[in-house]
Amino acid sequence: MKNVLVLGAGQLARMMDLAGTPLNLNIKAFDVRTDQVVHPLANEHSYGDLQTGIDACDVITAEFEHISHDVLAKCEASGKLLPSSEAIKIGGDRRLEKALLESCKVANAKHVIIESRDDFDNALNTLALPIIFKSALEGYDGKGQWRLKDIAQADAIWQDMQQFVEQANTSVKQGIVAEQMVPFDREISIVGARSRTGEIAVYPITENHHTNGVLSVSIAVNVDPSLQQQALEVFTKLTEKLDYVGVLAIEFFQVGQQLLVNEIAPRVHNSGHWTQQGTDCCQFENHLRAIVGLPLGNTELIRPTAMVNILGEDSVPEQVLAIPGVAMHWYNKQKRAGRKMGHINICAASERQLAEKLQQIAGLLDQQAYPDLQQFADKLEHRLA
Ligand code: AMP
Prior knowledge:
single chain; binds adenosine monophosphate; 28% strand; 9-stranded antiparallel sheet; 385 residues; D-amino Acid Aminotransferase, Chain A, domain 1; globular; Dna Ligase, domain 1; 13 helices
């Protein structure tokens, strides 16, 4: 029995617990909102404060990257934190992320770091329109991103951004990264694990669809080997540079046959939830295996699988569960507009059958709650025709 403390007590810690229990791993979660250690499935009971949790565990990991640096420093000092605080901080600050990509010579969108009006003007001069401006640290309530399509909007955007940066209540100074908008063909991601001994196992790349900036559908089907190879090379470069241990996700823009990194997440990732049914060893289990020093599990796709996020809804029609190959994953959260409440994994014997099942599910779900699902199902069917 090994004891693992997860920083964060949301759905990712919950799914780590569900995957770790059969391995005889004892998972606790540190809830950053209450500063208490809790059980990931039943957070009413407290097991004490952070220091108590650190002392009681063998390994500490994180389910999100926006963790206060004080907490990270305390965990790192114990010698139990995996991945390292450096990797977690990079995932939480786009400036550090861009510096890592540049130092590894990994292709990404042309960008400028903005700290002053001069930098802003420099961005306007060096990047072609449209430009996307992103807050370096976490935004909130959908704030923290601006798109400049027409130069006439530049002053208004600058003022809004300046106000946003000044009002930020963050321990590290908030900033802005300006990025050239990439005319991508699609968005994909790779999720993989690196062990304590440097062994790497990646899942097949996944195609991702976003609705209003939030992941709505991921689909894992047979992949183009050259894209998979490119993604694996980037994964290897970045994780080796960081001497990374655990699961890491990389989101890419695909432009023709080229992959440009959009962002990295030093943790299990929403675009890897399909692995719970589409592989022998899901991302949550592989993350735990990596950090506690067990061999990594098989990451091969065993059947075409899709994942549909449930956003802002606390029920779905029961007929969805009657479709063979459908698995529900609820997070036991209070309903709130747009909130990630759960997901549906859909497995099929073939890509064609997967497209048919997605059509069936799109027909059962409320179109307003899943606005792009029908369109996505149609597109997939069309592609296979
Ligand atoms: P992000 O928060 O960086 O993941 O951005 C949210 C979404 O905005 C992405 O999933 C893309 O759809 C879009 N986006 C972000 N950056 C760019 C870019 N440089 N070019 C085109 N689309 C982008």
